[in-house]
Structures are given as C-alpha cells and as structure tokens.
Amino acid sequence: MPNQKLSRFTLWACLGASLLLPPGPRLAQAQQGAAPAPNGPLRTWTTSDGRLFQATYINADSTRVALRMPDGKTTVLPLKSLGAEDQAFVQTKAKAGAPAAAPPQNAPNKQPLLAPAQKRIWPEKAIPEESALNVQQVPESPSIKGYLYRSKSFEFNASEKLAGSVIKEIARTFEATRTLTQVLPWGIQPQPPADFGYYRAQLYADRAGYLQDGGLKNSGGAYFPRSKIFKVPFESLGLERRAKTWFKNPEYNSETIVHEVTHQMMDEFLPFLPIWIIEGTAEYTSMLPFQSGAFACSSHERGIKEYVKNYQNRTRSTLFETSSLSELMAMTLQDWHARSDTGAKDQARLYFSSCLLVYFFCHLDGDGRGTAFLQYLDQIRAARDAWVSFLNNPEVRRNADGTISCPSGMTPPSQARSEAYGLEQGTLLRGNRDEAQLKKQFSEAFKKIGVR
Predict the structure, then answer these.
(1) Residue 304 to residues 384, 438, 451: CA-CA distances in angstroms?
(2) Which residues pair with 433 in a beta bridge?
(3) pLDDT for res 22
C-alpha cells in the first residue's frame, strides 16, 4: 500500500550524510618511522545510543577514532558517536600514544565477478541458508535499550520482548530478502555496513515510539539511509501482545519488510538511481510470491497478475490509468514528491506504474531476459564502484556540510553522484522509442501474459 511506503523525498534527504567520514591523511596510518604493529585484540564498543559492536582500535585524533572491523575494513567514527566510557578509553589511548594496529591496505572491497548481462540466469527460488536463521538474543545489559537479537546478517533492536517464534519469522523474512537481492541478476551484491558488521532494524512496540524516533506519519515502516537503519512498528508486522510477550496474529504481513529491506540492500545504488527504479524494484520484490521463508522467483508472472488485481480492486482503476511512461522515466525526486502530495490515488499510481515498468524491462521487453535492464544496472554499479574507490582514498575528506575535499590534481569520478546520472542512462532502456511506441509495446506485452 502506498501509505506504507517510504516517502522518496525523505529517503533522498537522508542520503546526503549517509557515508562515514573517510580517514584524513594521518588518521588510520601507522606512526611515521615505526614498524607496523600487529593486529590488536577485538574490543566490544558501545555507541552513544547503546548499540554494541566489535572492532580493533587503530588510532585517534581529538574528534575521530579509526577502528578496524572484524571483516578487516577500516572505518572512522566521530568520537562523540561512542559512549562515555569508550570516549574516555580512546582519549587515554591517544594521549599515551599507544601502538596502533596496522591498517589494512586501501583496496576496494572485492565482489564476485558477474557474468555478462546476456548470460545471467533468473533464479527459480530464493531461500536463505538455514544457518542464517539462527537468531541469538544478546544478553541484557544497562547499555542495551530494549531487546537485541541477531541473525547472520541482521541486528534487531526491539523495544519490547518478542516470542522466539516471532523473531525467527521476522529474521527469516529479512534474510530471505537479502538472499533474493543477491541471487537476482541485478548485480546488487549487498554488503552490511562495515562499522557494525550487521544490517540494523529498529522495531517499535507502539506507533508513538516509531514516530518519535523519526518514523513517517504516512508509513508503515521506513529505511533511513543516513543512519542505515530500517524502522518499523509492531503493528505493521501484524503482532499482538499476550501477557508480556508479542506474538504473530493472523494479519502478519511481510510486504513492508520486503519493500524496505530491498532499499536497505540497494543502499549504495540509491544515490545514482531515479525514483521510479528505486520504488519499482522494491515493489517488484514485494510482489513476488513468498511462502515459508522462500521467494518463488520463477512465479513472477503469477505475482504481477495478483499485484495488478489487488491494485485494481483497491483503487477501482484500470491497468493503463497512469501517467505517460516517458514522463515517469524522466521523473525527478521533486516531481515525484509533488505528484504524491496531490493525493493517495496519485501516490498509489506512481508505485504501481513503477513496478509495472520494472517488470516490463525485466521480463517482457527486448529479449525477454531483462538484458537492457541488467546493462543499465551495470552502469550504475560502475559509477558506484568509482565513487566508493574515490571516497575510500585516505586523502579525500567528506566535510560536515556535505562537500568533499581532496588534494589539487585529484578529481572526483566523472559520473554525477545523483539521480541525474541514472536519468541520463535511461536511454539504455528506452532506446529510440517515442512515447507512442513505448506505450504500445508495453500494452501489448502485458496483454500477451493476460494482463489487460
């Protein structure tokens, strides 16, 4: 439902400060003239909001601390983002000039090589490994607010206690969505944030707590790129309290989770993508048949038919009661926000039309294998990789006002780190077709699969 989806304006507004400040020229480097120190021990750290994570201390200055995460990556955090005890620990280490662990080489995170777009295979199913579903509750402590649970890839912070069966079911949906984005031929290859090692979700027992913590009034859940946290109230999941513990009720629903976790998995792609692809891909994943923790990817045709039927029943609209396809493909964030504000019906139509377009380019256009769409996403990934490499350079600094500083002679990647780049690449999808040609092919393709 559109009123359960994250406002694209808010999503985009959060993106500006979503990256951690890369280390400066001296921070996170071994002391000049000293031999690299061996790896130090892992230490449990506490953030200012009570979250726990493990990392090895490297070094620090007056306002920042460099840490090596368990996966070997170096990250730099503002000192004030840590709890009081950890701030004192860092200040003591910095003043003492304690030997630091040698930082790893500044090499980009290696991803598995992707086959050419024409040779990629659409999966039959997406099922998470059983080991990924082993949910552990972190022992309660004064530093933890609420109840903390962890699966293989996710950390869940719930404001009230959840039944074991419930948190396992929630984790199953999260882990299955992550697996889905990995096995789809889109080439997303998601990686958890290096500073925590887990994707994070905040679950609220009451809607008031969700709204107080930044949740959107017209949403049932939202992913916030700035903090990289997915926030959702219990009511959106279909949970009910029995005594002092929460359980599933018959209205338990996974669509909000799937939609927003898709945003979370595509986090590094978001700055470059136009709105219709961001929301269309999340609608696509949430319309795929999902049962017993598995996505039936090969049943996408059944999923899109059910999606269309539900939309028509809900809005009493026809399939092609939509804006110009060309207009949708050229729509900016500002345009989308302005259109959404005109009413729930227009907002619903935007999400619906975006999903149909993504489905069209994935399964109905051209060779029917989504080759052009995959090549489009390859261009986005190349831009992402170029910017990640640039921002990871220790001589590049991201300033508090969002600007970037780098030495003279060093230039940022040529691709714009904005939706403008994704909009420009749209010619890979549209080709030389004008609006009439595109809409005719779009209409005829859906009619062939029985969608009118």
Answers:
(1) 30, 20, 9
(2) none
(3) 31
